[in-house]
């Protein structure tokens, strides 16, 4: 009798446990159901990284290699972070343009990708050790090569092309800007804030953003309370915490007024994707950015038009774009002013890129 009674009790508790688990699963499913969340307002917003630029050849570039040292065969003549490339990205319809910023020896803010000028230009040294006039004298296209240094298709084409912050702002027209700090000095945030005020640019009113080290972000918060500002560390912390706690209907503290990065191939790991997640992040004052993972673990942007099809139609956050020359027109074709020759060359380049993966 005792053995039978004990067996019956075990079975009863197993039934209770199974019922509790099923109930918990049902509750969590309903709590995170995207289809039960309100429909987000608006559409996806594209962030053109460096404006329109030359894409690095992934096979030719390691993690520490300057992208100019090995690029894909060019299909256009735009150099990233120049006024021309920023203006073209804006004309094609980019909502936000991410630009590298660094302070110069004479107190200006230059728009340039990286703290050193050695790789991309015919100069040497750090951006911060050169005056704006010295940077203007450099050839911004000097170091770009497609064949390991045998030919340099843009040499002589980039003299005077490194813009000041004011020139970049004018080139962007109505597009928003995401300022990427390329140096490690926190004081660069103070210099950028001063330059923005001098240029008459209110980043809060313009809905611009800032990305840099945690020290940069802290300084920007002092200068422009309420501005969108994040570091890789803060965004990673938000994303990791939400992937755990989001399934319980919770928004982690790390995401409050923060930035959530969602890898394109890992959308399903984020609770309530997309509508419920968007509602939670909007309530928390957070920005959601779709990125693409590289083989070495770095995060990048969309570089194939078909990747747009992997983004839910209701998503109204941001998507980082690496190849703005092809991805932006694929979403916003009414501004596509590319020539047929440019389109044909771009399509051939896309096919080579697909085949290389």
TrEMBL record:
Residue runs in coiled coils: none
Gene3D superfamilies with a match to the protein in the record: Phosphatidylinositol (PI) phosphodiesterase
Protein name: Glycerophosphodiester phosphodiesterase
Any one Gene Ontology BP term: lipid metabolic process
A Pfam match: GDPD
Sequence intervals crossing the membrane: none
Organism: Pelagerythrobacter aerophilus
Source lineage: Bacteria, Pseudomonadati, Pseudomonadota, Alphaproteobacteria, Sphingomonadales
Entry GO MF terms: phosphoric diester hydrolase activity
Domain GP-PDE: start-end pairs: 77-171
